[in-house]
Amino acid sequence: MSRLEFARSRLHLKQPESSVNVMIHPWVKIGVGFEVFSGAVIGHTGFGFERDENGISVEIVHTGGVVIGDYVRIGENSVVARGTLGDTVIEDHVKIDALCHIAHNVLVGARTMMASLIDITGSVTIGTDVWIGSHTIIKNKVKIGNHALIGVGAVVIHDVPAGAVVAGNPARILRFQEGFGE
């Protein structure tokens, strides 16, 4: 039995008929109702390097896993990296479109929607009910507040408060959604 067949039988994996070449590593925990599409890779070792005393790149060992909540959908050719020490976590009802990259130790809050071609770098925290537009890049360790809206093509290099609408390169606060902010 393949890893995917095992996941489907034991973890309620719902793989569309047309999905092929999906890789789910053994350190991935999957909730019920998970949908994954062709070419997705879940739980790979991320791209993490540090320089030693001689300036030589040394790979950072990743020993964490990936935890995927219930009713999560991950689109074609998207990648979710395993955590370095802790886990990369995607909470319940998150929807991720095609060609997205989620790096190590990221937390994606419940009900977040991510359009295609998004790069979430290491240790980013995304709150609940966030919407992220296509072609967005979020810098490592940035925190995105609940109910934030990130515009198409944004390059987010600073924390985003709850309810903020941001866009641009670098992303700037345009306004706050009703009931939030200043």
TrEMBL record:
Keywords: Acyltransferase, Lipid A biosynthesis, Lipid biosynthesis, Lipid metabolism, Transferase
InterPro entries associated with the record: Hexapep_transf_CS, LpxD, Trimer_LpxA-like_sf
GO-annotated molecular function: N-acyltransferase activity
UniProt record, GO biological process: lipid A biosynthetic process
A single Gene Ontology CC term: membrane
Position of the signal peptide: none
Protein name as it appears in the record: Putative hexapeptide repeat-containing transferase
Source species of the chain: viral metagenome
